[in-house]
Amino acid sequence: MKQVPIGVSARHIHLSPEHIEALFGAGYELKIMKDLSQPGQYAAEETVAVVGPKGRFDKVRILGPARSKSQLEVSRTDAFALGMKPPVRESGHIEGTPGIKVIGPAGEVELEEGVIVAARHIHFHTEDAAKWGIADKQLLTVRVEGERSLIFEQVVARVSEQFALDMHIDTDEANAAGVKTGDTATILSE
Questions:
Q1: Which end of the chain is less congested by CB atoms within 10 angstroms, N or C?
Q2: Cβ-based neighbours of 76, under 8 Å, separated by 6 or more
């Protein structure tokens, strides 16, 4: 069986170095609160507020390190509360997505684009992908067991030597399936 650990991803934001400075002050560097499942990635101590057309969320966790472009990842439920309809996209694919206001302790920025509902995906280290015959960007079918067992289709395989094996779903998907971080899923097909 091809089993993978599940990581449930709550709303969060990735910021560019320019936006970190605009929100927190010149020369500011994020502080690591805890490491995440992917090597070199971390949840920062810092949070920001995001303001949409109809609502706002305070204390949105920043994930580091800084990225070339800022990006807010929300669930469909979050998007509804904000009054937005962002598309389902792979991380980093933000062209043509809605923007949002981001407020930090030292200032605010208006993102022109960057709000997405993250496409469900599995990070594979190249060795794991090779062992299972899985290619980068391949769409997979994955089953989660439990009281509310569910089959997820169109799960994007993301393969890199920089990745550790982990399936990422958002809070809406996790709630629908009754799963939490640390549970496992089984790849049914490639």
A1: N
A2: 117, 172
Q: Which two tokens stand for residue 90?
A: 């792979």
CA distance from start to end of the chain: 13
Q: Please list the pLDDT of the chain residue by residue as tens digits (190 residues).
A: 899 999 999 999 999 999 999 999 999 999 999 999 999 999 999 999 999 999 999 999 999 999 999 999 999 999 999 999 999 999 999 999 999 999 999 999 999 999 999 999 999 999 999 999 999 999 999 999 988 999 999 999 999 999 999 999 999 999 999 999 999 999 997 5
Contact in structure between 91 and 73 (CB atoms under 8 Å): yes
Determine what percent of the chain falls in helix, strand and coil, rounding each to the nearest 5. Answer: 15, 45, 40
Tokens coding 47? 């949070």
| pTM, two decimal places | 0.94
